[in-house]
Amino acid sequence: MNATEHGDDYRNHQTALKYSQQPQEDEDEELELELELEEDLERSAAHKTTPSSSLPSPQAAFWTHVLINASFIASWYLFATLISLFNKWMFSPDHYNFRYPLFVSACHMYIQFALAALTLALFPSIRSRTRPTAHDYLKKALPCGMASGLDIGLSNTSLKTVTLSFYTMCKSSSLAFVLLFAFLFKLEKPTYKLTGIILLITAGVVLMVSSETQFDFWGMIEVLSASCMGGLRWSLTQILLDKQSMGMNTPIATIFWLAPTMGLTLTLCSLIFEGWHKLWNEQAFFGDLAKTLMTMLYIATAGVLAYLMTVSEYFLIQRTSVVTLSIAGVFKEVGTIFLSTIIFHDVMTPLNISGLAITLFGIGLYNVLKYQQNLKKATLSEGRARDGSIVLTNRTSDDSKVYSKLKDDEEEDRENSEEEEDHAYHLPSARANIDREEPEGVDPLDNSVDHQRRLMLMTERLSSPS
């Protein structure tokens, strides 16, 4: 036998040894995974029986959630009230009398875009990992930006002709539009209780400002149109915030992507309806350098307030819903009306006070309803955890995503069983047994099933009652 034949025999021997050891290596790997899973199950059982490491009570979790949301609501109240009063002062003929609200609103959008870009540059951790495609931007982001721009522009335009109280009354109708679009886009489930509470709050706001004497028809049309656009705006915004692929799952990123569209929409409307040839000839605002700088300072101040208000709005809507935002907005409007009575000398009548009481009562009912719903959900979640319907995570982040649930959907498993079995034959352990027909009634945890499927089946077996 020559050297070549010896070499061939050696290579054949090594190949045979390799394939003979392959099933044993697969079995060792699977056994190691099984031991890890058993250890995780034991730690989970110990965790559930240890009082010191138990989950927080539903009441504590609810109030923690409430406190965080309340901080966003308070900041939103502050900035929104300031900008409402500032805009009324700036556009009212009785005060600063700047007659170009669409131009100002467009400037606000560009300021917000610049501030959002600066924030993303300073804090890379809040950047989104994805960005919208051109198709998604035109189909989803562009309508949201246009609706947002029209909402803001029409709202500011109406302040030239209507009082702040009348503006608040008409703006409260946005509750109905928000609810309509939330139901249309399936963001909220319509219920009689929710609808009744919203109607009650709306009726209270209408009564609260029903003594309006300086009625302006076109001003009312502008506010109602803004309310409709606002309802569409916030429903589309919630959709964008919930879609990770759009790259707008953070409030700052949402402003960064939407503000240019909003600014361009308002710029176009300003050019058509206001005429910039008149704007730059206004001697009271741009007559000299000092007046120009003062006017731009006013616009920039309102732009910063608008940015802070919008960030608070987006954080609030991301944590709750558009309906929650609108309900909280009613209370903000109540505070705005009180401030308008002090600053702009609006008069409160007994009818106004009655409407205020009804509004506060409706807000209280809504909070009670949300508390009961959240408490019920938290109780059910805790009960499921104690029953073993939620599994501990495995040792890697990828495994934790796969095994985060103990009980898989049985129908989905049945539909995908054939595909998984076909995939199993491509694994090394299956190749060793490919010529062997699997007997009927075989253990589902045998080596012919891939690791992920095997561990899921094992998890179900360990968690099922004996």
TrEMBL record:
Q: Where is the Sugar phosphate transporter domain?
A: 71-367
Segments spanning the bilayer are 62-86, 98-123, 164-185, 192-211, 248-273, 293-310, 322-345, 351-369
Matching entries from Pfam families are given as: TPT
| GO CC terms, sorted | membrane
The residues forming the signal peptide are none
- Keywords assigned by UniProt, alphabetized: Membrane, Transmembrane, Transmembrane helix
Q: Where is this region: Disordered?
A: 1-36, 401-452
Q: How does it sit in the membrane?
A: Multi-pass membrane protein
Protein name according to UniProt:
Sugar phosphate transporter domain-containing protein
Q: State the organism of origin.
A: Puccinia coronata f. sp. avenae
